[in-house]
Specification:
alpha+beta, Chorismate lyase, two-stranded antiparallel ribbon, 10 strands, 29% helix, 34% strand
Length: 238
């Protein structure tokens, strides 16, 4: 049967999802799987290759196939959404912890990102995002004070966008985003539960109001094993 390898893939994937095989468990060896399913080594390898491509397992030479943590959270790339809005869709508890909130004249690098004149003030806001029991996102926001003249810990803990849109009656329109993978900084080590990872996924966002004014620059730093970044693309022939 040509689709035997797909059946085996689906069955193993389901066992991983259901917790029959747990994170860091070793799957049965290729030889053992051949006996269990009464198929050739080539069929088993096809099944394991799909599991690898889909992020269920990691093959280690001379050791076997280890089960990976599949509990990743879908994070939209194209949309302009708040963490509170994303959190409501999760099946786990979520929490924001405000680490820094101050109104400052920013350093040169932030002035460049926001196209600021000298002596313009911004709100500097550092927040960690906890999903379940782990802090896995560090958001570093810089918001122009001329658009948002008052912020509190309570507002930042709840939702900046909710406050800006519902209380200040400003309309957030769109954002430009850049995604990179970078080595962890001392700030990442201080604020995040890195679980041994030395790299983070960094999403830099430049967010605009509907009058095209840039009002926010954000560095959102994510632990790499916990998120799948998704987008929708439509073919436009050039």
């Amino acid at each position: 049967m040509n689709n035997k390898y797909l059946m085996i893939y689906n069955e193993l994937a389901q066992k991983i999802k259901n917790g029959y095989y747990k994170v860091n468990d070793l799957l049965p060896s290729e030889s053992e799987l051949m006996k269990i399913y009464n198929v050739s080594r080539d069929t088993i390898r096809k099944s394991l290759n799909i599991l690898t491509q889909e992020g269920y397992i990691q093959k280690a030479k001379g050791k076997g196939s280890f089960v990976l943590d599949i509990n990743r959270f879908t994070f939209p790339v194209s949309g302009v959404v708040s963490f509170k809005e994303i959190g409501k869709k999760l099946e786990k508890s979520f929490e924001t912890d405000v680490k820094k909130l101050e109104c400052i004249i920013p350093e040169t690098c932030i002035c460049k990102e926001l196209n600021l004149d000298k002596n313009e003030k911004v709100w500097k806001i550092f927040r960690t995002r906890k999903i379940g029991l782990e802090s896995i996102i560090l958001d570093k926001d810089y918001i122009l004070e001329k658009f948002v003249n008052n912020l509190t810990d309570e507002i930042c803990k709840n939702s900046l966008y909710e406050y800006i849109e519902d209380k200040l009656n400003l309309k957030i329109a769109y954002a430009k985003k850049q995604i990179t993978v970078e080595k962890c900084t001392k700030e990442d080590e201080k604020y995040l539960d890195l679980n041994g990872y030395n790299m983070v996924v960094v999403v830099r966002s430049y967010t605009y109001l509907d009058d095209t004014n840039l009002f926010q620059y954000t560095e959102s730093r994510h632990r790499p094993d916990k998120f799948v970044f998704v987008d929708f693309a439509r073919r436009n022939k050039i």
